[in-house]
Amino acid sequence: MTISKIIMAGNLEANVTKRPGQKNIYIRVNPPDGKITVSAPAKISDKLIKDFILRKIPEITKARERIRNQFRQSKREYVSGETCYYFGVPYMLQVIYEGNRCKIQRVPNRIIMTVPEGTQTDKRKSLLTEWYRGELKKFLAILLPECEKRVGVKVNACNIRNMKTRWGSCNISRKNILINLQLVKKPLECIEYVLIHELVHLLEKNHTNRFRSLVEKYYPAWREAKRTLTEMPLDYWEK
After folding, report:
1. What would the DSSP string read from start to end of 101-162?
2. Which of 207, 162, 204, 205 is nearest to 185 (CA)?
3. Domains of the chain by range and CATH?
4. Which of 190, 196, 177, 183 is nearest to 226 (CA)?
5. By the 8 A CB rule, do 196 and 147 touch?
6. Per-10-residue mean pLDDT for the chain, 239 residues long?
7. Confidence (pLDDT) at 164
8. Which of 3, 95, 139, 218 shows a CA-CA span of 20 to 30 A to 190?
9. Handedness of CA 34, 35, 41, 46 (dihedral sign)
10. Cβ of 168: how many Cβ atoms within 10 Å?
11. Which uninterrupted H or E stretch holds 95?
């Protein structure tokens, strides 16, 4: 049975989830405010988890500093003049109120959203989100088979989800991968890096030295792509 609890390690508060069948402890520092989450084997003691967190204080402090210092966009209102990123390139959003149908068109330097008069913010947000989803889906249909061929594996499904804390994830037993919708706003090399990273998990489950060497083999420029992900502006998230 999965158990969730809060554990204090010194002055650090961590949300801990214990899972049956899990073999290792994993710690994550989450945006936007640096909350700590820990995933651990079901039978491990709270004391061992506390000790693990305390040993990781230097890494936690460094990760929190990076997260809090990385530029994050202000809250979106989905109105004309806002900046929308599309595969790493900034576009100005232009909202036109006319007609009775919703549509989005990308032209040089602008993303044009046409909606009926009186369309609310949530509807404009949903329209742009789903347009982004369709654009990323079209790109993944081209890039994923190329990455699968390079790594020598094939997934059963590649889905898109708007995630706060991960660029991607891999369900090894089902051979499914998830890609963060926010990657549609990042340069193409970032998406390629995340795909290779998740596909390599099908060859090596954990982030071992072998895992890192395989990522290096199949995508030698991964360090530059990862650096870009940490330097580009992040989307606004409610705390």
Report:
1. --EEEEETTEEEEEE-TT--HHHHHHHHHHHHHHHHHHHHHHHHHHHHHHHT---SEEEEE-
2. 162
3. 3-69 (no CATH), 83-231 (3.30.2010.10)
4. 190
5. yes
6. 86 89 84 81 90 90 75 78 93 96 96 97 96 97 97 97 86 94 93 96 90 95 89 59
7. 76
8. 95
9. positive
10. 21
11. strand 89-97
DSSP labels for 152-185? T---SEEEEE--SS-SEEEETTTTEEEEEGGGGG
Cβ-Cβ contacts under 8 Å for 229 (sequence gap 6 or more):
167, 186, 190, 193
**Distance in angstroms (rounded) separating the CA atoms of residues 19 and 100:** 50
User: The pTM is what?
Assistant: 0.74
Q: Cα 53 to the chain's mean position, in Å?
A: 23
Query: Are 97 and 112 in contact, with CB atoms under 8 Å apart?
Result: no
Q: Tell me the backbone φ, ψ of residue 109, rounded to 5 degrees.
A: 75, -5
CA dist 173 and 161 (Å) reads 19
Given this model, what pLDDT does residue 62 score? 83
pLDDT at 159: 97
Classify the C-alpha dihedral 147-152-155-156 as positive or negative.
Answer: positive
Give me the residue label for tokens 């081209």.
142
CB atoms under 10 Å from CB of 238, counted, come to 6
What DSSP assignment string belongs to 29-81? EETTTTEEEEEEETT--HHHHHHHHHHTHHHHHHHHHHHHHS-BPPPP---TT
Report how far residue 190's alpha carbon sits from residue 156's, in angstroms, rounded to the nearest whole number.
Answer: 22
Rounded CA-CA distance 230/167 in Å is: 11
